[in-house]
UniProtKB/TrEMBL annotation:
SUPFAM superfamilies: Acyl-CoA N-acyltransferases (Nat)
Entry keyword set: Transferase
Protein name: Acetyltransferase (GNAT) domain-containing protein
Sequence ranges assigned to domain BioF2-like acetyltransferase in this UniProt record: 110-256
Annotated coiled-coil segments of the chain: none
Domain of life per record: Bacteria
Keyword Transferase among record annotations: yes
GO molecular function per UniProt: transferase activity
Amino acid sequence: MNTSKSVTTVDQLHFFELFLAKRNLEPFYTKIINSFSEKIIYDRSIPQKNYLSKKTIIIKDVPDYLEVEIPNENNSLKIKKISTYEGFAINIQDYSNINEYLSENFGKASRSKLRRYQNRLENCFNISYKTYYGEISQDEFSFLFNELRRMLEKRFTQKKEDNYELQNWEKYQNLIFPLINDKKASVFVIYDGPKPIDICVNLIYDKLIYSSLSSYDINYAAFSMGSIDMIKLIEWSIENKFETIDLLKGYYYYKQKWINKIYGYQNHFIYDSSSLRCVFHANFKAISSKYFYILFHLLKRWKFHELYHNYKKKIYKPNLPEIDLNQPISLSPIQDNDILSEHELIEIKLDNSKYDYLKKALYDFLYSSHESVNTVKILEHKKKQYSFIFKGKLKNIEVTYADQTSK
């Protein structure tokens, strides 16, 4: 392996790319101990060559529960660790099934609500679940990643945020496919019939699962898809004898109800202490990084990040395709005897893409009325443009949209 060439051209690396993608931490670390389980999960001897002679290497986002050892190169190699962000994890070692986890971490009312989301989703649609782990075809993988990209584009347009993975999509896609077939990654999918409506990609190392990328069809938002796929992930992880689900950093407001571990991220500055230039460079970078994160956490405590996010949303100009997030301009209940005659209405089917804009309102109606998509009729007014009736067994609503010709 020609490691020296790459080191001379790169002085800043990302830990998870080395750890989860390349599966090789040479020449930076010789051993990794998972402090959650107190097990050695990485142990490699490195040939006695001065790969890092006169070098300063910065490795970003190392979870502090992974305790590292660096090579002993003539006793000159040193490491400085600077704390950065918080990360969030679920320790599942003590649970034998999903019900034990839910009982210990959620109250009775919360457990009932979670069950209601899943039961209602399954009652309203033709739902099935599948985890791809150890085997997936190239065609199926490409189809799922195209669907995942479409979901992410629509979701982040709705949130008025940019998404890092979309900016590096081809690289990410090429990375994941071989890992699934080697049982180093998994893809969990919720299907409505043949259509994926929720996709979650997880990277795997030893008994650790890293929940790295997920999204859902926002037309199904009423069913709390994120909660359902989290339950399914925890259930699958327990059944397959994993020990920790790492939810990584960010979005604490969503993750806080699931986690039972908070850890810290670190930036590692590995340098050759026999070189004055490396000592100066490493210490300068480490001190700069330390005070940057002190300021970051101070501003966060003062809620400056909320002002920043609100500002970004106001000036948001995403590098994404235009996606219709249309909502009805009126929505009201209607009694059976107020529904017009069949001469003034025509039944339509949602398999016609021209009616895609109806799905969000229809699925919200299914959730609130406990109806099934198989029994609800969609009736379009013949004379009143963009006006529809969702006629169920128990309830009906009339929905009107703005002119769609310019959409």
